[in-house]
Structure formats: C-alpha cells, structure tokens
Amino acid sequence: MTPSPAPAARRPVRRALVGLTAVGLLGLAACGAPPTTTGSGSGRNAEGSEAKIDPKDCPISALDEAKGPVKVNLWFSGLVDPALGVLQDMAKRYNASQDKVVVTTNNQGNAYQEGLAKYRGASATPAQLPQIQYLEDTMLGELVDKGQVLPAEACMEADGFDPTQITPAARAAYSVDDVLYPGYMNVSTPILYYNKVHFQKAGLDPDNPPKTLKEIEETSKKLKAAGVSKKPFSFKADQWFISTWLSGVGEKMVNNNNGRTKPASEATFDSDAAKEVFGDLQRMDEEGLLNAFPVTDGSIDHYLALINEDSSMVVETSTASGTIAAALGGELANGTGGVKIDTSALDGKKIVPGSAEYPGLQSAGQIYASGGAFYIMNTSSPAQQAASWDFLKFMWKPENATIWHTQGGYLPALKSIVKSPEVTKFQETELDGKLLTPAVNQLATADPDNSGPLIGPYESFQDILQGALEKVLFNGADVDKSLASAQADATALLKDYNGS
User: Fold this and answer.
1) Three-state DSSP class for 333?
2) Strands, E assignment, 19-62
3) Pairing relation of β-strands 353-357 and 233-236?
4) Which of 317, 286, 328 is nearest to 443 (CA)?
5) Does residue 434 belong to any structural domain of this protein?
6) Stated pTM of the model
7) Which of 142, 146, 243, 492 has its CA 20 to 30 A from that of 308?
C-alpha cells in the first residue's frame, strides 16, 4: 500500500545558511526513491555482518601515477553566503597550493533539494555524476543504498588520517554500519535565539534562558503577561525540531536503532513523548503563546516576528547565527550583546540578541549532529577518487576547519580547534561567534550513540511527520489521531521502499 501523500511540499532548507535577502530559505519537495545500486558499492551490510573497511578500496596511489592535473567536479547546493564564498575560496586556495589536482565548484542551487534532484537525475548514468557531491545529512541513507559513494574512511585509513580526531557526534551521525562515509561534513544543530531586552522588561534574567520546552512555555506566559510580546515563542513548524526533541531523550523515530543497526522497516515516533510535544505546542498555540508559521518556500516570517518584536524567542539552526546577529543586532556594534552583559547595556535598546543550547524535553543541549556532507563518488576514475580525497583532506587542516566555523558559520567538526585561540577569540569578540558558542558546546557533549534517524526515503518520511504537525497546529487536529495516522503512513512508506 502506498502511503497517503503529505500536504503540499513545504520541506525547508533546514540547515542551509540563511541570508537576509529574499532567497535565504527555500522549500524542498520530497519524494522517496527505492534502493538501486548503480555504482560499484554494495549499499548496507547484511544483517549481523561486521563492518569492514579495506584501505585498498581507496586508490590514493592513483593520484601519483596520473599524467597531468586531475580534474575534480564538485556539485553543491544549499549553501549561500558566507558559506558559499568559503567553499569557493577553499577550492581556489587548494588549487593554488599544488599542481596535481584542479577542483571546480558547481552550484546547483540555494536549496539542498536542487542538488539532490540533479544527483538523482544523473545517478542512472554514472558517467554524468560529479566526483564530489555535497548533500544534506538526511540524504546519507539514500546515497548508501544506491551504492555510489566511496566510504571516505577507506581513504583515511589508506592515507594515515585518524578519523577519531573528528568530533564524535559528527562522526557517528555520518557513519553507516560503523563506517564513516563523507570525506568532510558541515555540522549544524538547532539552538535557541532570544531577545534579552524582552527578558529584562518582563523581570526575567536575560542570562538565564529556558532550558526545556516546558520552561519555554512558562517563560512565554511571563513575557505575555508583562505585555512584552504578543506571541512570545516564534516557531517554524519544522519536523526537524520534533525529531531533535524526541531523539534527545532516546526516542527512536524508526525501528532497528533508528535505522542504524539495519534498514528501518517501521516508524516508531507515535510515543508518549511525541504526544507530549505535540500537545504542548498545540496548547501554547491555543493560549496565544506560540507564534506558529508553516514551512513555506522563501519564508523568513519566524525571524521577522522577533525583528518586529511580536515574539521574543525562536528555535533555529546554528548556521543562522550570522543572520540573527545582523537582523536582531540592529544598531548594536559587532561584539555587543554577549553571553554576559551589564543591565546598562539594555538601556535604550529594543533588541539585544542572545542564544542558548537547544531547550530539550529534559534538559538543554539534547541534540544530534545535522548539516551537510561532502561525498566522494565511486563512479569516477581511480585518479579522480584519489584527487577528491586529497581536496577533502585539505579541508581538514586545522586552519581550514577553523575558517568553516568562524567564516562559514558551521560548527567545529575537528576536535583540535574547539578550544583553539582563533575560535576562542571569535567567541569572545564577534557577535555571531557569541551566538554560535552554545551550539559548539552542545555538539562537544552530544551522545554519539544517540544519533538521528538513518532512513532511505528520508524526504517523504519527513513530509509525513511534518504534515501531522501542521494539521495539529493549523487545523486543530487531534494529536493522538494525527500521530497514529502519520506513523501508519510512514511505516507503509518504509515497507514500500524496502520492497516488503
């Protein structure tokens, strides 16, 4: 049975950097795809088999044997400035640093979906694929199922690169059957952004933001009672926040250990915790505490709610720190509105942006690594595969990993730079650095054994769950019935994808 379709495609570019100009947030359409192995890979390991990595699978010696510069084509999407400029500059600097490889970056669009559509269109004809493909983290399952990715861990072993130097939560999130697949990852997580001025006006401590969803509700009541904001909690109805809340307390979205022991065959998100979250959000909406917005193409209304002071808080991706710093900072000079501020700093200001670890169901910071990743395709020549790894290894250099954080807005994926002088200075002196700090801290302590779901037809799965959330918030649908129906549809989707 084919699952009933979700509402009109509204899936967002959740972790793409958000620009202040119009096109920052684009919707993503969703469609599932059955596993089809058209590359040289074999997809998931058989149930019960041990993961095996053979360094010989990565032909790094082919680069030395190549005659003339090896051309590497990198397709990407979902990156806008400043991350877009960081990637392009990274390729230019790499090309200038050696004469064996020439990397060309090709932008497939502002939305992750555009790059995914291009990949899907070319995957049936492997010769048309690029050598490196950058896609959102949710596409990992489909890529592995298609068998067209060279596990980068094989290259790491062949080249003496120690994968344990990668932030544990990030490494775990991008591993399948204990094998790390991407050659580099841009990591992001959700965090809380809020207006410290509003907190002060309501008699709240501006340096003590909510740590749980329940505390968001209580804080919203105080903000509303004080007449500070009409609907205090601005909320884009994105299922990513639901998945993060549930995964943060060990709830699995699908069976088989969130699809990580073996491919998921059943959805499992219809739980007491999910009913609590949906119920809390619906109640907050009914009481005028929640400023809910649908996920629509190009919409930044949930940000504008804070800028217009209709709301005081919003949860969003950590990569939005630059946008928040600029939009909410107003006339503030760069570097003000830090984690610790004097009360006098609030005088005369309408907005002073602050941030905090993602308020969870039990405590703050209960997240898993998200973002996007760079994959080496196994459909090109051995020399191109070796050249692709050589470029991605260049990105792992501490100075380059630092640039991805301080200029690109992504979180440190390399453990050695988390406490480096450059990162510390960035956090202490730059407003966007201050806003990113809680995300850096929660990633460093995230449980690598509690990664997010690994699902082949992830897009369609998300649309189903998001459709249930939208029905509850915008149509007043019954929570229990909506979740039960969504879980049944998601299970049917997984069974259809697996051919069972």
Assistant:
1) coil
2) 27-28
3) unpaired
4) 317
5) no
6) 0.88
7) 243
Mean local confidence (pLDDT), 404-412:
95
Whether residue 354 is found in the same domain as residue 387? no
Strand partners, 103: 72
pLDDT tens digits, one per residue of 29-45:
233 333 333 333 345 66
- Left (φ > 0), alpha (ψ -120 to 50) or beta: where does 436 sit? alpha
d(CA 225, CA 223): 6
Q: How many CB atoms lie within 10 A of CB 268?
A: 19
Domain tally, the chain:
2
Residues spanned by the domain of 286: 190-367+452-498
Q: pLDDT tens digits, residue range 139-189?
A: 999 999 999 999 999 999 999 999 999 999 999 999 999 999 999 999 999
Answer whether 131's CB lies under 8 Å from 73's CB: yes
One domain for residues 184 and 254: no
Tokens found for residue 487: 């879980």
4 lies in some domain:
no
Q: Which amino acid is present at 370?
A: S
CA distance 177 to 184: 18
Same-domain status, 182 and 201: no
134: part of which helix (H) or strand (E)?
strand 132-136
Q: Is 240 exposed, middle or buried (0-12, 13-18, 19+ CB in 10 A)?
A: buried
Structure tokens given for 486: 């969504």
Degrees to nearest 5, angle at CA 46 with 40 and 51: 75
**C-alpha distances in angstroms, 157 versus 163, 174, 177, 304?**
8, 17, 17, 47
